[in-house]
Amino acid sequence: MSEAPQPTTAAEKQSSARVLPALILAMLSFSVVQTAVVPILPSLAKELSVSGSSITWLMTANLLSAAVLTPLLGRFGDLRGRKPMLLISLAGLVAGSALAVSTHSFTWLVVARVLQGAGGGVLPLAISIVRDELPKQKVTGGVAAISASMGVGSGLGLVATGLLLEHWSYKSIFWMGLVFGLIAVALVALRVPTDPVTDKDGGADPLGALTLAGWLSALLVAVSQGNHWGWTSTRTLGLFAVAAVVALIWGVIEVKVAHPLVDMTMMSRPAVAFTNLAGLLIGFGMYGSFMVISNFAQTPEKLAHYGFTATVLHAGVMLLPSALGSMVAAPLGALLIARRGPRLPLVLGGALGAVSMAYLALRHSHEGDIYLSSAIFGLGIGLAFSAMPAYINGAVPVEQSGIANGMNAVLRTVGGAIGTAVMAAVLTGDTMKLPIPVSLPTLDAYRHAFWTAAVVCAVAGAVPFLIRTVKPAVIVTEGNRTADLTSGREPVKTDA
Prior knowledge:
The chain is an all-alpha fold. The chain contains 19 helices and two strands. A two-stranded antiparallel ribbon has the order 1-2. Helix 13 (270-298) packs antiparallel against helix 15 (312-340). The longest helix has 29 residues, at 139-167. The two termini are 24 Å apart. The relative contact order is 0.14. Mean pLDDT is 85; it is low at 1-14 and 471-496.
């Protein structure tokens, strides 16, 4: 393990006021772009003359790309420098947005969404840069702000989509992604310094990268398309089997190879393994709940006798409190982590998510119910997102920060894919008989979906109790300086 010499005083480090806004905007750019198309998939199907099952590839392709590229970019950041990889990640987002703006072909639009998925690398790379560049007393708050920005951007993306469609075509959504991405590239290039920490002793692991991409691809395609192909169809079961076999091969490779893409010893540490489980569950709850709430709000009340006949914009506004809640969660989570460790905010995050979804299962007849639940849910998601990097950074050395946080981001993405698929199956499994050729879920189907999300969030809130201690990585002493390689700050007592 190696570490390049680092400045020892806050005055010698880049100011957080200079670096942090660039990283937060980069994270917002990706999260906005990732979720912006969700509420307009039905209208895009009509616009592009494709079937409802085919249009879901616009989400599947993006999730798949992000899941595969996030850990790879995170690891390459550890090996070759975080700033260059962050710029490459944002360049993919910009290129994808530019392609989406310029094409009217569904096939090329899917390619554009694949390119945009490269933006998934922003999260682990930005967290690693914060550990490198910010004064140690501001690392916790910086990491919490970047991680919570994922929830903020997801909520803002839904609102922005509705607002843009009120005045322009669907192309305006990709124009938004292009503008956001270009500004983020400029700020990162100008404000983020070349990072001082690289894993010079590490090496490439092409076979590990190939098998990781293989099992993630098989798993996400099966999960995302299972509702359309049938969960017991040959294609779906075959892909699940392929995912299981290739994942086993990947695990064997990573144990045997000299310089693994993912250190399995690191991944098996309780603080990392259980935090990743919490990430998968929180991802399930967030993406699944956003989809269910948006669909519920847009349900025509005259036909279904529930819902609010909301437009895409109105439904997005109902979810706006979730973005505001996540904004509040970032400083609150940082404060709780500094005082009590990461367990409390992660437990609270899961608990608040469960309470908000249980509330909607019981009360959903007024718009105020949606607004209140959305705010509580956003606060919970933001707290959980702020706590997960703190757990991981407390258990891994600096040179593994990118890949460790990258795998956590992957599992959030996988959880999101599973969540949307499960929620869609719950809703389509119980539909009304209507005199017109329109299929609408029953109110009971929505209640079951809300309860499902509540249970998943509750389990996520219980997971931290399985983490007894965080074993710090190595403390390196150079001369009269001691560097804590686990968190970017002095060792503190934690109940994690």
